[in-house]
Amino acid sequence: MDSGITSARARGFANIAGALLLSACVSSSDQRISRNDYLAIETALSRDISTLASEEFAGRRPGTLGEAYTLKFIEDSLKSAGYVSGTNDPANPWRAPVELVSTTPSSYRVELQVGRRRYLVPAAESAGFTTRKRSLVEKAPMVFVGRLAEEVAGEDVLGRVAVILSDPGKSPARRDILFEKGAVAIITVVDTEDDIWDVSAAYSSEKLILPSEENGALSAFVTASAMSGALGKNRWEGLLASEQGSDFSPSELPALATVEANSIRREVRSNNLIGLLPGKQPGSGAILLLAHWDHFGECGQEGDKDRLCNGAVDNASGVAVMLELARRLAKNGPFDRDIYVLGTTAEESGLLGVKAFVDQPPIPLESIIAAFNFDTVAVAPRGTNVGFVGEGQTVLDAPVIEAIEKSGRLIGNRSLADLFLQRQDGWILLQKGVPAVAITSAMGDDQVLNRFLDLRYHKANDEPEVVELGGAIEDLLLHERLISRLANVRTYSVPAN
Ligand SMILES: [Zn+2]
User: 260 CA distance to ligand 1 centroid (A)?
Assistant: First the structure.
């Protein structure tokens, strides 16, 4: 074994040499994995993924029995590995409560008034949503803003119902901007009744939100033909034509809008789970491992035979890797630094659990010197390049790249890893200045990832039988070596920013 191998050519040679030695070792790297080690990890991961993604755990939806099973499983696993509660809150050992609100759209109404004529937009040509129990805007002035958003002056939309033209991919961000500028409701004009159907399908299911993030936005959708019917064909077509001009600016419509939406609301208590392997040198900082434990529960299409989304890859696999890594670290330890293990809730609903964590962390966030997220990790076979999510964002670049090189692996497609950056729990930590990265073969190779995304991502067939563990095991071992180094003050001193 030669830990000095760094050049690509030398690595290539090591790969060939490694391949020839496959009967003796399973890794092609200079830091070989013994076959027994590999098989032991594989057995542990398979076992834990099967449990977490079993029918009994019911898709691990926050606030359900599935949550209770999941948290008990994670707690028991950590306890038997020597961990203690990491909540730093004697009243809530292991579980840090996260209060969520569940909202499910129930009814809506969109009515346009032009002069004395009132036009109730038919249900098939409209949709309306709010997260509140009831949101109502009555006879509010309307302003047509086309596809503008940032360029719109605050006084143009303040207190008004803004009418925008649908622009898939861009509409949600535009709506956010216009709500911030004071629009009381937004009507998005879509092309056809099919679009209304799609919007309804996308928004109609139960949604979990953090009370602190709730904005009460009132969003409606109507078809172009409904707008044309209410305003008159000529006026509507005139507006569409004006919107094409380079000098277009928002224009007041000669109409008033009444928009109402209602939802069924209930409070949901969920939890982050936090364990701790205390270090020998208090005050020397902490390392955080995290993985979201939640998934969707039932999520298939109505009428499907299997509607349970077990979430084996997403994210039973991340939790399983985190737990096995935690066990192996506990065996190697104790270290100088604390090791925290965090199972987050409601990631699938918008990284909500980790947002709650950074709002009320068990230790000052500045003391976390490195955080490693494990999300959807078991999709790539052994030998896949490794994605480095968060590269260029933190002081961890040097030690992570060194660890990847020492493992004999190559960094994968960097733009693929970048795509994932804002879509994972680590992003919220990064926003708070915590060096948070994800090092994963799942984000190292487009073909491998796309196969999973196309066939199984957020579908009922994300089942334990189809989990691919090879890449995840290599990733786990890479983390073990890296964290064993970062966790001791002699081998890693935190650089100044
Ligand atoms: Zn997911």
Answer: 31
